[in-house]
Amino acid sequence: MTTTVTERPTERTTDRATWSCPNCQGETTTAKKRCRDCGTSRW
């Protein structure tokens, strides 16, 4: 008997919306909620 395993692509939901930093007004589109310019965290 042969067993076939099919891998399903894992979908990860990450917030990649553009976020404007309230500190330096820089915009970032990364999943991490940290400003690239000044390091301010979104949380």
UniProtKB/TrEMBL annotation:
<dbReference type="InterPro" id="IPR036410">
    <property type="entry name" value="HSP_DnaJ_Cys-rich_dom_sf"/>
</dbReference>
<protein>
    <recommendedName>
        <fullName>RanBP2-type domain-containing protein</fullName>
    </recommendedName>
</protein>
